[in-house]
Design goal:
This protein is of the alpha/beta class and 389 residues long. Helices cover 31% and strands 14% of the residues. The chain has helices at 44-52, 83-98, 160-176, 191-196, 211-229, 252-270, 298-311, 324-332, 343-347, 351-357; strands at residues 16-18, 21-23, 27-29, 59-66, 102-108, 126-127, 139-140, 146-147, 153-154, 181-186, 234-238, 276-280, 316-319, 338-341. The strands form four sheets. The protein has an eight-stranded parallel beta sheet with strand order 3-14-13-12-11-10-5-4. Strands 1-2 form a two-stranded antiparallel ribbon. β7 and β8 form a beta hairpin. The longest helix is centred in the middle third of the chain and has 19 residues, at 211-229. The model is unreliable at 285-294 (pLDDT under 50). It binds flavin mononucleotide (FMN). The site of flavin mononucleotide has 22 residues, from β4 and α9. Residues 30-33, 63-64, 106, 185, 187-188, 237, 280, 284, 319-322, 341-344, 369 line the site of flavin mononucleotide (FMN).
């Protein structure tokens, strides 16, 4: 199976060589927005939070981080487009490195999943389309209430290259801040996904219509960041089968394959592999709580993931509803090289240790996912007691 590194059965705790990075295990911190970076500046609480979740040879992906001032759609998410932000991130990255972990910065633009209150000039958010997100979804406002997504402004064809340029500059800033690499957030109904999905993208120019056209923006972003920091520091995240924020596609399997085919081709052109491909599955229900997305049948999902995994020529990471056992199984059966964990990692700063010794897990508290307290629901989840070991 592509990407596996020995004939012996791999486990979540086997080392893995992810390009130039040597990982000591495969339990990855999934990127997660936590709204603790007041006014876009990472503060000391972030250093504490990420450091708590660091292990020697571990791999962390930062929360979605704004590439420019039009990129935000949540309160108090960090940015990586000003000097002040870069300087503040350095302290977070240093804290993670001090514990021996590797950390990538997830580069994020929410596109139409924003609101005038988050836009610099109070204007409409930008997107591939001028269709708003339906009222099935609500946007979290700065005062903690929920609002309605406004009508976005469809980008003109001539404006799109500037967006790719914003990703490029943000990638350079991330490297200056000390990050080991970046992840392009192409998932979950945000800007790049708004181009990829035929349920959203209604463009009639070279960025809409055919699969090739819908993939074009993502590919331009990948080319832009790779030109700046090199393929071996770039991961890509997509979620072809997730319909969060109305991001539906008429054929997720084919869309995923179209993205993969193009990434494979780019790798050949670059003469170097991307760090990884990271796919979120809609199987969010695995431990009892539906998040979003259409939970397909288990067989359907497994078939898609295996097809994508086999097609991608490089490191493959999966995410979405994984328990310890499901992660063990995915790695042992060669369905993934790495597994990223979200909610379980929020509630268990020492998740890697708990998984290793098969210890009980703390339960996550949903109501503090997106609140601003620098401690409560953020860095106050308990570590294992010695008596558990
Ligand atoms: C509070 C919260 C914030 C999240 N923020 C992001 C984000 O910023 N970027 C992203 O790509 N995914 C984000 N996700 C999705 C997670 O990365 C992950 O894929 C998802 O939670 C499924 O994994 P899990 O079942 O292990 O939680 C978020 C999830 C949660 C629960």
């Amino acid at each position: 199976m592509a990407g596996t590194q020995s004939d012996e059965t791999n486990t979540l705790f086997s080392p893995y060589k992810m390009g130039k990075f040597s990982l000591s295990h495969r339990v990855v911190l999934a990127p997660m927005t936590r709204c603790r970076a007041l006014n876009g500046i990472p503060r000391p609480a972030l250093a504490e939070y990420y450091s708590q979740r660091s292990t020697p040879g571990g791999f962390l992906i930062s929360e979605g981080t704004m590439i420019s001032e039009t990129a935000a759609g949540f309160p108090h998410v960090p940015g990586i487009y000003t000097e002040e932000q870069v300087e503040a991130w350095k302290k977070v990255v240093d804290a993670v490195h001090a514990k021996g972990s590797i950390i990538f910065c997830q580069l994020w633009h929410v596109g139409r999943a924003s609101h005038q209150v988050y836009q610099p000039d109070g204007g409409a958010p930008i997107s591939s389309t001028s269709k708003p997100i339906s009222r099935r979804w609500r946007i979290l406002m700065p005062d903690g209430t929920y609002g309605i997504y406004p009508e976005p402004q469809a980008l003109k064809t001539s404006e799109i290259p500037e967006l790719a340029e914003q990703y490029r500059r943000a990638a350079l800033n991330a490297i200056r801040a000390g990050f080991d690499g970046i992840e392009i957030h192409g998932a979950h109904g945000y800007l790049i996904d708004q181009f990829l999905k035929d349920g959203i993208n209604d463009r009639t120019d070279e960025y809409g219509g055919s699969l090739a056209n819908r993939c074009k923006f993502l590919i331009q972003v990948v080319q832009a960041v790779v030109s700046a920091i090199g393929a071996e520091r770039v991961g890509v995240r997509v979620s072809p089968a997730i319909d969060h924020l109305d991001a539906t596609d008429s054929n997720p399997l084919t869309l995923g394959l179209a993205v993969i085919e193009r990434l494979n081709k780019l790798q050949l052109q670059f003469g170097s592999k991307l760090t990884y491909l990271h796919i979120t599955q809609p199987r969010y229900t695995a431990y009892g709580q539906t998040e979003s997305g259409r939970p397909g049948s288990e067989d359907e999902e497994a078939h898609m993931i295996r097809t994508w995994r086999r097609a991608f020529q490089g490191t493959f990471m999966c995410s979405g509803g994984f328990t310890r056992e499901l992660g063990m199984q995915a790695v042992a059966e060669g369905d993934a090289d790495l597994v990223s964990y979200g909610r379980l990692f929020i509630a268990n700063p020492d998740l890697v240790l708990r998984f290793k010794v098969n210890a009980p897990l703390n339960k996550y508290i949903r109501k503090t996912f997106y609140t601003q307290d620098p401690v409560v629901g953020y860095t106050d989840y308990p570590f294992l007691l010695r008596s558990h070991l």
